[in-house]
Design a protein that fits this description.
The protein has helices spanning 23-27, 46-56, 69-74, 86-94, 111-117, 136-141, 157-167; strands spanning 34-39, 61-67, 101-105, 121-125, 145-149. The chain has 168 residues and is an alpha/beta fold. The chain has a single domain, classed as 3-Layer(aba) Sandwich (Rossmann fold), CATH 3.40.50.620. α6 links the parallel β4 (121-125) and β5 (145-149). It is globular. It starts with 22 loop residues before the first helix and ends with a helix.
Length: 168
């Protein structure tokens, strides 16, 4: 089989992955209102997928910003975290129908990404009180809304890893 007969080198969903330095350009043509959320999304589970679908329902496009590997390590989730590298976490998220764009951030918080893309809707999971969500003040100042979406499925990567380790 020749290279021309082979499958494309990247899947169509990977086009949703945007480097931070190209984010503004990629979002220029996206439908508004733009919903923004962020997180580690290490071992994607039902809670994540449900949360992202609910977030997407709040606007016309959903941007997910993923903590880089170094950023995850600084969160103190454990020496072996993240389990999946940033590139893989972004690819899995990009494959979800409800996700329009995926990017990453190296810093401890996504504030620079939020300021760059100026979402109309800022969302985090129900474990985040609205007043503690990074970027809430800024988004509200430009007329946007901020939501803490209650969990419908109590799932956690940390708890999943605890159970796996206990069984081993």
């Amino acid at each position: 089989m020749t290279q021309t007969d082979a499958a494309p080198l990247s899947s169509s969903f990977e086009r949703k992955i945007v480097r931070p330095d190209r984010l503004c350009q990629a979002l220029a043509g996206c439908r508004r209102p733009l919903v923004f959320t962020n997180g580690v999304f290490d071992l994607l589970h039902r809670g994540h997928v449900d949360y992202l679908a609910q977030a997407r329902a709040l606007g016309a496009s959903l941007l997910v910003a993923v903590n880089s590997d170094a950023s995850v390590r600084r969160l103190g989730k454990g020496a072996d975290r993240p389990i999946n590298v940033c590139e893989d976490r972004m690819a899995v998220l990009a494959a979800l129908e409800c996700v329009d764009h995926v990017t990453f951030f190296e810093e401890d918080t996504p504030i620079a990404v939020i300021l760059a893309c100026r979402p109309e809707v800022l969302v985090k999971g129900g474990d985040w009180p609205v007043e503690q969500i990074v970027g809430a003040t800024e988004v509200r100042n430009w007329g946007g809304t901020v939501h803490s979406i209650p969990f419908r499925f109590e799932r956690s990567t940390t708890e999943t890893l605890r159970r796996i380790r206990a069984a081993g």
